[in-house]
Amino acid sequence: MNLLLLLDEDFLPDGTARLTGRRAQHAREVLRAEPGETLRVGRLGGLVGTGEVLENSPGVLHLRATLTAPPPARAGVDLLLAIPRPKALKKVLPAVASLGVDRVVLVNAARVEKSYFDSKVLAPDFIQELLLQGLEQARDTRLPEVHVRERFRPCVEDELDTLFGQGSLRLLPHPPAHQPLTTLGVGAAPRVVLAIGPDGGWVPFEAELLEAQGFRPFTLGPRILRVETAVPVLLGQVALLRENISPPNSR
Question: Domains (ranges, CATH) in the chain?
Answer without folding.
Answer: 4-69 (2.40.240.20), 77-241 (3.40.1280.10)
